[in-house]
Amino acid sequence: MKAIAPAANPVLVELVNGQPTTTSLDVAAHFGKRHDTVLRAIRTLDCSPEFNARNFAEVEYLDAKGEQRPQYRMTRDGFTFLCMGFTGKEAAKWKEAYINAFNKMERALHDGAAANPGTVATPADPIHLTYNDRPFRIVPEGAALWFVAVDVARALDMRDGHCLTRHLRSEHKALRQVGHKRLSLIDRPGLELALHHASPARAEPLRLWLEAALEQFVSGAPAPRALPGGLSGDQQGALKALVAARIEALPELERGRAATRCWSALKSRFGCGYKEIAPERFTEAVSLVARIVLEGELLEPEAPKVVGRLDIDYPIEDWKARNPQQFRHDNPNSPDLVVGYGDLLSSGYSPCCDLLDKLHNAGYRVDGAFYELRSYQNLMLQMDMAIRLMVGNARQAIEGFEQDRRRLQKFVGVKGHRA
Questions:
Q1: Domain count, the chain
Q2: Is 143 inside a domain boundary?
Q3: Which one, of 352, 350, 330, lies nearest residue 339 by Cα?
Q4: Does one domain contain both 314 and 265?
Q5: Which residues have CB under 8 Å from 137's CB, separation 6+?
Q6: Are residues 20 and 108 in the same domain?
Q7: In a domain? residue 36
Q8: 376 closest CA partner among 354, 344, 348
Q9: Are residues 35 and 110 in the same domain?
Q10: Does residue 417 form part of some domain?
Q11: Are 18 and 76 in contact (CB under 8 A)?
């Protein structure tokens, strides 16, 4: 691992659990050290276990490849203990920068607590959603919505939440107690900025999913408002109710993806958001949502499509005609049928498979019979390979024995010398 070049960006000091903290990754970046070197220095600090537990916490972050990597989050005291051995003019500059950042954070924390007593550690109740099988939390605060920065970062395939927040203005980011953790949040304008600067391949699916999620799962939204030339408020409500009914029976983890599929289908068909659909096409929109097949939907077994006699006709003559190589040992003039198992394996047509296909296409559930047949075929192939291997080994052994049997033996000098 190469040393991280000294960063020109401001130092990172964040409020976690009511305490200003920084990270080993940020320290390595600003002091021009390898991150693994800083990790090793923290793990080998000559301090008491109590001090270590109070001032250092091992956490994880997402690297550029999206993989989990270890880092340490440290308090002001932990930073001071770690960096007291860093010497040189450049190190002194960054020590001063961190100290100033810690002081600024502590003053802001003190002033905020004095102005708004009781608000510093008030836990927020997040809305728990799932995006691409990962948690995505939304924190309502009055009429505003805040988004957990690390969840947004993972959705956009960014390294960590710090990548999102460090360049945002203070009014677009905040620290809130979410459950038992103090998390960094961004507001809706901050999220839009993040989407604007992210890869379009990542940003557009998230934007589309988010629009659907906010419509479907966030309560307290204002009543639907009709746009000029678009669906009325009642039509919008009916469409949302239909989507809700479609996804209600799905497993919880599938609901977000299913809602996205419904809203995406509408946007693809009509080329606009659902609110902008022309009122005269409302029935078409309802029909589209009702017909969408959703992943995870519990479908009833399909009834047989054909009632009565099926076109089933598999005489022996047809079987032999389709696989002539299979009946090399069969005498056509004899009433007996002779089939070798090796010939069965080389056949290209199976009347049993064809029959099961017809039943399946007619709506009958024959998968058990099909896989039983496939099991027999696979086992016969394995047995054929084993027998061929055994025969080959036996033939080789017999040939070796025959060569040894014919080999001449010479015993030198045993008969004596004749004059």
A1: 4
A2: yes
A3: 330
A4: no
A5: 126, 127, 128, 129, 147, 148, 151, 178
A6: yes
A7: yes
A8: 344
A9: yes
A10: no
A11: no
Q: What is the DSSP string of 294-325?
A: PTT--PPPPPPS--S-------HHHHHHH-GG
| Single-letter amino acid, residue 332 | P
Q: Are residues 73 and 130 in the same domain?
A: no
Q: How far is Cα 1 from Cα 137, in angstroms, rounded to an integer?
A: 34
Q: How far apart are the first and last CA of the chain?
A: 87
- Residue 43: beta bridge partners? none
* Strand 173-178 with 123-124, pairing: parallel
Whether residues 237 and 195 fall in one domain: no
Tokens in use for 225? Answer: 């408002």
Q: Which amino acid is at 409?
A: Q
The answer for 65, left when phi > 0, alpha when psi is -120 to 50, beta otherwise, is alpha
Residue 414: helix, strand or coil by DSSP? coil
Structural domain for 352, as ranges: 308-403
| Both tokens assigned to 55 | 């001032």
Q: Indicate the residue type of 153.
A: A
Alpha-helix residue ranges (DSSP H) falling in 185-281:
188-197, 200-217, 233-248, 252-270
Sheet holding 123-124, edge to edge: 123-124, 173-178, 181-187, 144-148, 134-141, 127-131
- 127 near 172, Cβ under 8 Å? no
pLDDT tens series, the chain, 419 aa = 444 444 456 778 887 766 788 899 889 888 888 999 999 999 999 888 888 888 898 888 777 776 778 899 888 899 999 988 888 888 888 888 898 888 888 877 666 544 444 344 444 578 888 787 788 888 887 777 889 888 888 888 887 777 777 777 777 888 777 777 777 888 888 888 888 888 877 887 788 777 767 765 555 455 555 567 788 877 887 787 777 777 777 776 677 777 777 877 888 888 887 888 888 888 888 888 888 877 665 544 445 554 456 778 878 777 777 776 666 677 777 777 777 666 666 666 788 888 888 887 777 888 888 778 777 777 777 777 777 778 777 888 787 777 777 776 777 777 776 55
Percent helix, percent strand, percent coil in the chain, to nearest 5: 50, 15, 35
Cα torsion angle, 130, 131, 132, 134, sign: negative
User: Do residues 142 and 78 both lie within one domain?
Assistant: no
Residues 168 and 259 in one domain: no
Contact 285, 270 (CB under 8 A): yes
The CA distance from 161 to 155, in Å, is: 11
Side chain identity, residue 100: N
Helix (H) or strand (E) holding 50: helix 49-55
List the structure tokens of 253: 């983890």
Whether this prediction's pTM lies above 0.70 is answered by no
Residues 36, 98 within the same domain: yes
